[in-house]
Amino acid sequence: MIIDADTHIAPTGGAFTLEQHLARMERAGIDKTLTWLKPDYVGEEIEGHNRYVYEATRRYPDRILGFGWADPTVSVEHAKKMVQICTEEYGFYGIKLNGAQNNFTIDDPHLALPVIEEIARVGTRLALHIGPDAYERTHPLRAREIARRFPELTILMVHMGMTNWDMNQAVVEVAAECPNMILIGSATNDKAILYAIERLGADRVCFGSDAPFGRPHVVRAMYEALLMYDVEASERTLVMGGNIARIFHLE
To answer: Which long-range contacts (CB under 8 A, 24 or more apart) does 100-104 make?
Structure first.
């Protein structure tokens, strides 16, 4: 089973429609996708974007693995409300916080941590954007403090530092210290992916395309070419979908 662990859809049209998303899945031969919104909303419009993802999961429950999005810059209370709706009403697999797109520091004690506390309280998973587009705000060392403070919380490290080698190394270093971290290798490169697998093990790294920003059929081909000779077949299965299936209890 092939699971793309980083995809976006939105009700604002263009390449982000559900229909375009499904077409990309078919072209790439992907069975399921972990899917969250595209952050092109304004303020409380985020509610409609999360609901669009929910409607996609209702229409295609065997294909779309819904994941919520909370934005504490709208307000902390509103972000907590999104956590509750996305988990209790929508049944999503977790909540994403993106300090780059939403312009906050991921361990901010007044903005981010109260929302993360709510995510931990409801017992779901946390995804964090980790990238050089907001180097200081999303740095892996900040994620390490979150992982230590909430050891019961599974944390998806989305992009694992993108193509910034210093950040890639830092992600792997902190993940080695924090067993509750899982890396999603989207919008990054083969060097970083293989480095993470070699240092952490194939059970800690997941295939992701960042669709539609990345082309799933191209990213999948890159992964399969990379993994063909450098890891065992059983390890390829983990990276290409088995890890998400295990973490989300799909098996």
So the answer is: 100/129, 100/131, 100/133, 100/134, 100/137, 100/138, 101/39, 101/129, 102/39, 102/71, 102/72, 102/73, 103/73, 103/134, 103/137, 104/72, 104/73, 104/137
Torsion, CA 139, CA 140, CA 145, CA 149, rounded to 10: 120
Structural domains of the chain in order of their starting residue, each with its CATH number: 3-247 (3.20.20.140)
Is the confidence at residue 186, as pLDDT, over 80?
Answer: yes
Return the pLDDT at 230.
84
Structure confidence by residue, pLDDT tens digits, 121-171: 999 999 999 999 999 999 999 999 999 999 999 999 999 999 999 999 999
pTM (2 d.p.): 0.98
Quickly tell me which residue has 């506390």 as its tokens: 117
Q: How many CA atoms lie within 13 Å of 39's alpha carbon, on the beta-carbon side? A: 16
Mean pLDDT of the region 211-228:
98
Closest C-alpha to 86, from 46, 142, 26:
46
Please state, as a whole number, how many other Cβ atoms lie within 10 Å of the Cβ of residue 232. Answer: 10
**Mean pLDDT across 12-34:** 98
Position 251 scores a pLDDT of 74
Q: How many residues in the chain?
A: 251
